[in-house]
Amino acid sequence: MCGSLLTNAVLAGHFKEDFEKYTTGLENSQVHTLEELIEFNRTRSEKELPPRFPKQDKLENALTTKLSTKPLNAALQYARQLSRTKGIDKILEDYNLDVIIGPAESYPIASLPLGYLEFNGRPFGMAALISAHQEATLIKVQSAWEATFPARRPPPRENFEAS
Question: pLDDT tens digits, residue range 85-95?
Answer without folding.
Answer: 888 889 999 99
